[in-house]
Specification:
The termini are far apart. This protein is mainly alpha-helical and 133 residues long. The protein is 73% helix and 0% strand.
């Protein structure tokens, strides 16, 4: 397992950062809208759609629950590490401010299947079957 790009304390601080929470809430709603527009043939679509329906207008507590997984995702860890390196600090407010909206959206897109309960194996199998037919 590769070493973490930041300490667990820094990652936890970012996951609990109140200035990041409203941006994450909005990003979740934006990705939910994207999933609603997907064709039903999309691998894992029923679970992806159901998650979208559940979090279309995420409450603060839903977003806070998802925040840990979002911040722990490889795209967000990379963004946080880059923000920490650029700013020379692991202060959660500074890191949150340096993470771009695109990085937040990308992390949520990347983790949507896992949160929805779509198995990576079943999604890949579906994609392979679609290519073969």
């Amino acid at each position: 397992m590769p070493a973490l790009p930041l300490s667990l304390n820094a990652i936890c601080g970012l996951a609990c950062e109140p200035t990041l929470l409203p941006r994450v809430r909005m990003a979740i709603a934006m990705i939910a809208q994207e999933v609603f527009a997907e064709p039903p043939e999309t691998p894992g679509y029923p679970a992806r759609w159901n998650l979208s329906k559940t979090v279309l207008s995420p409450t603060e507590s839903q977003a806070a629950q998802l925040m840990v997984g979002i911040v722990a995702s490889p795209p967000m860890l990379a963004a946080a590490a880059a923000a920490a390196a650029a700013g020379g600090t692991t202060d959660s407010v500074a890191m949150a401010a340096a993470i771009t909206d695109d990085q937040i959206l990308g992390a949520i897109r990347t983790g949507w299947n896992a949160v929805a309960g779509v198995s990576p194996t079943s999604a890949e199998t579906t994609r392979i079957e679609e290519v073969e037919t």
